[in-house]
Amino acid sequence: MKKIILFLFILPFFANAQEALFVQGSSGNLFINHLAAPKESFYSIGRLYNISPKEIAPYNKLVLENGLTIGQSLKIPLKAVNFAQANSVEKDEVAVPLYHKVEAAETLFQLSNNYNKVPVASLKAWNKLKSDAVSPGQNMIIGYLKVKKELSAFAQQGAKIPVETTEVVLVKEVPAKKVTAVVETPKPKKEEVAKKISEPIEENKKVDVEKIKVETVARPTNVSLSTDLKTGVFKSSFLDSGNEEKVTAGVFKSTIGWEDGKYYCLQNNAAQGAIVKITNPATGKSIYAKVLDVMPDLKQNDNLAIRISNAAADALGAGSANFECKINY
Description:
six-stranded mixed beta sheet
């Protein structure tokens, strides 16, 4: 009986996470429509779409503390923190395709203008188009929702953002006995490598035209972690504003931080994205963690002021149980 009740509880949420996500609005004011399911709150919806509930509520002209009702319609804003139209996803995130249903007489150029002037070449790459033609009713990917792997059910729909290709037409001419042609892509946002093509051309040879696809490849960078992983790689970004609290901390499970030293936490007083210093007085150890979001409004969080990842708790020598700590931010 308990298993049946649990299934009925998670079914609306699971079904919602399986549906294709469609974008509404226009450039500068893009959003996703969401209908509140049973037991959902601003906090759980914020984790689902990787955006703070403090942004969702005012965007919908609602009061955060008043909560939600079943079936209530919300607009989820798409901003830099949760929306990508380039290959800019962090290691702890996945990209979930966002769609637009093509209307009659719409063109790729119009879609580009309506969605932040995203390059037409990107639209073609994401949707595997060989031409500029689109059809009414066609679902077109116009960008990607960035969500945390460990916090959002949408993560199971994650996909790799395709790298666009540039098609170049090379015209070979006769004048010289030997011509070396170098094909380069336009100057990109990231450093890229242009494919060089060399071919001898015999004298009196007729003009020949070839289509050459040049795929841009970002040069790998060597990252060196100079910060001691025991304290976390966010240490260099910590700004001490003089705020200090002695609180009770809880722990949440995560696969992140064990090898790369990236520690995360949920905390109400520090801003989202801020770095906090957490000290365990029992062991004298300290770590630096990034604030993912506010604490969810759940019964199990009563009397807790912060939750940290289990990798961070392990670095503090705290185990998995609640413990007393000091936080600076």
